[in-house]
């Protein structure tokens, strides 16, 4: 079963996209949206880097494989672990692979995401 559902509420959102990088910030974000996707013809490696800074609430980046299995890449909450960043190589499988940004109710955040393959999309596009 494929889930292309994206639902969100945004307050004072600004986003930027250039080539293979997407970034943005929101005073309040609630919900989720896809910020990267790759329809792979065969299994391959993708180099990604990301950063997330949460000023209120909590947010996470999740990877969704072609079967719909969700894996958390990064999770941040306001306070102690408010800001995190990483670079890694992920193994994508044949089919539609996605990364989504997910925010709990009233989450204030800044994020940046880069991938060397696939399509990046600004949140809310």
UniProtKB/TrEMBL annotation:
It comes from the Bacteria. Residues 1-24 have a biased composition (Polar residues). Residues 1-26 are annotated as: Disordered. This is Uncharacterized protein. It comes from Mediterraneibacter catenae.
């Amino acid at each position: 079963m494929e889930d292309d559902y994206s639902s969100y509420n945004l307050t004072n959102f600004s986003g930027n996209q250039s080539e293979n990088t997407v970034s943005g910030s929101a005073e309040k974000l609630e919900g989720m949206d896809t910020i990267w996707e790759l329809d792979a013809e065969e299994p391959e490696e993708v180099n990604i880097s990301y950063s997330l800074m949460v000023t209120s609430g909590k947010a996470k980046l999740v990877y969704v494989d072609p079967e719909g299995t969700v894996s958390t890449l990064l999770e941040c909450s306001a306070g102690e672990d408010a800001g995190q960043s990483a670079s890694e190589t992920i193994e994508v499988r044949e089919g539609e692979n996605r990364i989504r940004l997910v925010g709990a109710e009233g989450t204030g955040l800044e994020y940046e995401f880069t991938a060397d393959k696939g399509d990046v999309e600004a949140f809310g596009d």
